[in-house]
Amino acid sequence: MSAETLTRTRVKFCGLTRHEDIAHAVALGVDALGFVMWSPSSRSVDLDQLASLTARVPAFVTRVGLFVDPSADAVEQSLPHLDLLQFHGDETPAFCAGFGRPWIKALRMRDGIDLPLEAERYTQAQALLLDAYRPGTPGGTGESFDWSRIPATLAKPVILAGGLSAENVAQAVRRVMPYAVDVSGGIEASRGSKDAREMTAFVRQVALADAD
């Protein structure tokens, strides 16, 4: 069996705020769970909530903290509860790398963005998360972007985000062949509350695309 045959697309559920949603995600075999540490977001959690929610996450499921131009103190206070950091603002590479944790850099697909150059700039990142661009909004727009803008080869693994749902994620996986897919609004019943059926359908569609 070749290495290519063994390849699968990783799945990250983001914007988790409820214990029952975490339990269902874990049961589905989701690889990573995202917690929004940016207070303007309706999906944000505070430190106490983060501690409580992540305490239920078992081994081998990655706990990801999402930050937008945070202070160093804000990141440091969250570290005991996180395995991976995700930066969505204008953070410098040096800032992102300053916490002794693996990290990924989110890039919004604005006009004229040079992804190879950004990959070189954020060379220490574990991956680049590509999301839709809306002025003044750092992420979570529920909008997709033109996937053909992603180079066929990039120096960093690609995590595809932006407007994904069970309806289009299989197409996205077949078209982009990303390392991982990231979803929040596409599996929600309401902001911050996930829908178990949509969560299940999303994971099944990714698996179906991988099996092709």
From TrEMBL:
One of its GO terms (molecular function) is phosphoribosylanthranilate isomerase activity. It is an enzyme of class 5 (isomerase). PANTHER family: N-(5'-PHOSPHORIBOSYL)ANTHRANILATE ISOMERASE. Keywords: Amino-acid biosynthesis, Aromatic amino acid biosynthesis, Isomerase, Tryptophan biosynthesis. The gene is trpF. CDD domains: PRAI (cd00405). Pathway: Amino-acid biosynthesis; L-tryptophan biosynthesis; L-tryptophan from chorismate: step 3/5. It comes from the Bacteria. SUPFAM superfamilies: Ribulose-phoshate binding barrel. Its EC number is 5.3.1.24. It catalyses: N-(5-phospho-beta-D-ribosyl)anthranilate = 1-(2-carboxyphenylamino)-1-deoxy-D-ribulose 5-phosphate. This is N-(5'-phosphoribosyl)anthranilate isomerase. Pfam families: PRAI. Residues 12-204 form the N-(5'phosphoribosyl) anthranilate isomerase (PRAI) domain. Belongs to the TrpF family. HAMAP family: PRAI (MF_00135).
